[in-house]
Amino acid sequence: MRAIVDTGSVSGAARSLRMSHARSVKLVAEINALASTPLIDTRAGGQSGGGASLTTLGLAVLNSYAEVETNILHAAEASLQRFSQLLAASGEKSVGGSRPELPLPKEERRVK
């Protein structure tokens, strides 16, 4: 859904995700079947150019998902810090050396 917002089309979203057009069309149908009203509005191509966009409900779902993702990453960060503290207190070396920073979603990822 994020790729559709970014590209303005199902085809563009598929290309950006290195996915076949057929697979992307199938996913759009599956996503639209999740709710009582469509989450993605598609317009057939041709001279008018076609395209796709998220409906009001689709934008709300995408923003809610981004919030869930942020909450999960924050929750995981705290758990990983506790895990590292336990290892440090026991004198054990942390597994895999230093842990890379987790990429937290930025607030500007929210779609208006």
General description of the model:
The chain has 112 residues and is mainly alpha-helical. Helix content is 54%, strand content 7%. The chain has a two-stranded antiparallel ribbon with strand order 1-2.
Task: Quickly list its features.
elongated; 112 residues; single chain
Biggest β-sheet strands, sense, barrel: 2 strands, antiparallel
Number of discrete helical segments: 4
> What is the string of SSEs from the N terminus onward?
HHHEEH
| Shape, principal axes of CA atoms | elongated
Name the helicity range. 40-55%
Mean pLDDT: 84
Question: What percentage of amino acids are in beta strands?
Answer: 5-15%
Strand order of the largest sheet: 1-2
> Roughly how many Å apart are the termini?
14 Å
Task: Describe the SSE topology.
Layout (H helix, E strand, L loop, with lengths): L1 H6 L2 H7 L4 H12 L7 E4 L7 E4 L1 H35 L22
Antiparallel strand pairs: 1-2
